[in-house]
């Protein structure tokens, strides 16, 4: 299928409006019709571009998913300490950059593993947790998971802190919890 600029613009607008709606109301409270209305098109047009609401969400999350995959691939090339240090810095940057996406994901965390569209995102998130832990020790893995969840919870309130304040908080918190020495 050849994609025309008009089709690309429509697809982009659907994704943009879906993100706005998911962030404002929550994923569960938004229908395909809501997305279509906000994007200025029909529900049939949304379904032409996406095979359902999970596919729209997957498109919303695609840039974050790609950046997480890049983080995991880069960390995998490093030794354990370097990988942990790299992951702390990169995770901090991604958390701040994708604050709105994190807000949308919070609602889905309990069920995201059941959604096949997000299997790689979940796998990369687990691998990132291992890099943050810097160890195979179950306590360190639990601390990394705890730190991730805490920071993601903080990142979901975009208006409360500036990006720079959020960066500083994430970096200090991760280092104190995961690299206390």
Give your account of this protein's structure.
There is one protein chain. The chain is an all-alpha fold and 181 residues long. The chain contains nine helices and no strands. Helix 5 crosses helix 7 and helix 7 packs across helix 8. The longest helix has 24 residues. The mean pLDDT is 90.
Give helix and strand order, one letter per element, not per position.
HHHHHHHHH
The helical percent reads over 70%
Question: Could you describe the largest sheet, including whether it forms a barrel?
Answer: none
Return residue spans where pLDDT drops below 50 for at least 5 consecutive residues: none
Straight-line distance between termini: 56 Å
Cα radius of gyration in angstroms: 18 Å
Structural class: mainly alpha
Shape: elongated
The helix tally amounts to: 9
- How many strand segments? 0
Round the mean pLDDT to the nearest integer and report it: 90
Could you write a compact summary of the structure shown?
With 181 residues, this protein is mostly helical. 76% of the residues lie in helices and 0% in strands. 30% of the residues are buried.
Q: Which keywords apply here?
A:
181 residues, mainly alpha, 76% helix, elongated
Present the secondary structure layout.
Elements: H1 5-25, H2 32-39, H3 43-49, H4 53-76, H5 80-97, H6 99-108, H7 119-133, H8 138-155, H9 163-178
Helix pairs in contact: 1-2, 1-4, 2-3, 4-5, 4-7, 5-7, 5-9, 7-8, 8-9
